[in-house]
Specification:
The chain is mainly α. The protein is 71% helix and 0% strand. The mean pLDDT is 80.
Length: 85
Amino acid sequence: MKQEIDKSKINGLLSVISKKIGVPPEKLKTELEEGKFDSALNAMNKNDAARFQQAVNNPKIVEKMMSSPQAKALYEKLSGGKKMQ
């Protein structure tokens, strides 16, 4: 069963990120839904962008990151207390 994250929390997160990288939230949301990270990557320094690209291209890195206590806590906060499966 797929768990849904509260849309208002997603919009809040998009708003915070868009302010930090200088991209309108609507554009950022559209890019992320399409699997594009152009605006985010352009706003990052080269080292961070390279690490992000490496993580996106390697599912094992993403899996390791998502299993961290910090990622689990963030997921629970965004999903209204639901545990990550």
